[in-house]
Amino acid sequence: MKVDVLLGLQWGDEGKGKLVDALTRDYDVIARFQGGPNAGHTLEFNNQKHVLHTIPSGIFHSDKLNLIGNGLVIDPVVFKKEVDRLAGFGMNIRKNLFISKKSHLILPTHRLLDAASETSKGTSKIGSTLKGIGPAYTDKTGREGLRVGDILEDNFLEKYNYLKEQHLNKIKQFDYPIDLEPLEKEWMTAIEFLRTFQFVNGEYLVNEWLGTGLRILAEGAQGSMLDIDFGSYPYVTSSNTTCAGACTGLGVAPGTIGNVIGIFKAYCTRVGSGPFPTELLEETGERLRTTGREFGATTGRPRRCGWLDLVALRYTVMLNGVTSLIMTKADVLSGFDTLRVATAYIINGKTTTEIPFDTDTPVEPVFTDLPGWSEDISEMRSKDELPENLKGYIRYIEEQLGVPVTIVSVGPDREATVHLSSLLMAHG
Ligand code: GDP
Ligand code: IMO
Ligand code: MG
Can you give 140-159 as a three-state secondary structure string? Predict the structure, then answer.
């Protein structure tokens, strides 16, 4: 058996939560491989909306297993809130959820450091979700981090206090006001809560599952354009959001990776700072934001909106070795006479199809215009019902990316998907 990977190809919020949940029926295990509570994965079914931050999006299927991989950074406080919320829906997830001992812990002082560092940057801030992600991964690579497995050790408090002191010294340099005590109290309670979950050697477990023939779907967080290596550095997150991150974030060998399912919105959004060549700053952007309800699932911040960027998508399809595509939020584009997609950039007077190294470089997108569709597609469930111009839009994307679009999502609900196999060019 292979590990399939589902990951975002843009700047996050592509609809990963919805699709992982919808695809969970085809798998036995859902395994998150990186990121932390900066993620907000929304699922909707039975007229209920759920937002997950740390817990894999397969959790609502009681017969499936879920793994939080070693590649994650976990804030016990956020985790406890998530679990408590699920308990409010009558769910006990203890049996189906496994947490890698090697995943790292976000301390309250990581969050404070995140805030202090962002404040100090002024207008050049990253636009972090302020969940402590950057500082927690910094400690991981700096070999000072606290891991989930450390909770079980006798010297846990000693290690915690050492790290906390380091952080407090750093915060002093920022001259940032803090009130740590209540945060620390809440965190310690949450640590005791976390302790009651199943801690595992994730890398052994996941390979054992593979060996016994279980079907595994690795769930990415954020998007490939926020990857620490390949995103618009420094306006990125602090983990590898691309496919290789599934190997290091779970402990599976590259050869075990099967399908790489790349998910993208039919247009683009971005939260936080950083380049966004196709951004629409006028009423068209506002229209996408309103119709698409483009407000962050984690922070509530309005998302920046723009036309589809095929330069970025070609890049992330390449980086991830994407084998099939899912396009979400096609319903949001209904009613536009013309849809624009960027196929190249003009940089310093030269046309290029590459993402520039320097994020400050002014980039002018080269657009191709495609005809829109007026039909409300949100209730459509079969490929035959889809408007011709939507099929044309998809066909154009497939041609440009050389990968088939196999699912189109037409609404937030679990069931609001249209399977396209054998419909378009790339399917023959
Ligand atoms: P994720 O981080 O990739 O899981 O995505 P988010 O949950 O942050 O953001 C996606 C938003 O779009 C959520 O509010 C979803 O409920 C919603 N959504 C997902 N797919 C569709 C779709 O096809 N159409 C519409 N209108 N909304 C969708
Ligand atoms: P999901 O999994 C969208 C963005 C932040 C900021 C940058 C760095 O829901 O798609 P961080 O908190 O990681 O230090 O922030 O990355 N960001 C996301 N944007 N979706 C996400 O996750 C994101 N996680 C981080 O807005 O620009
Ligand atoms: Mg999100």
Answer: HHCCCCCEHHHHHCCCHHHH
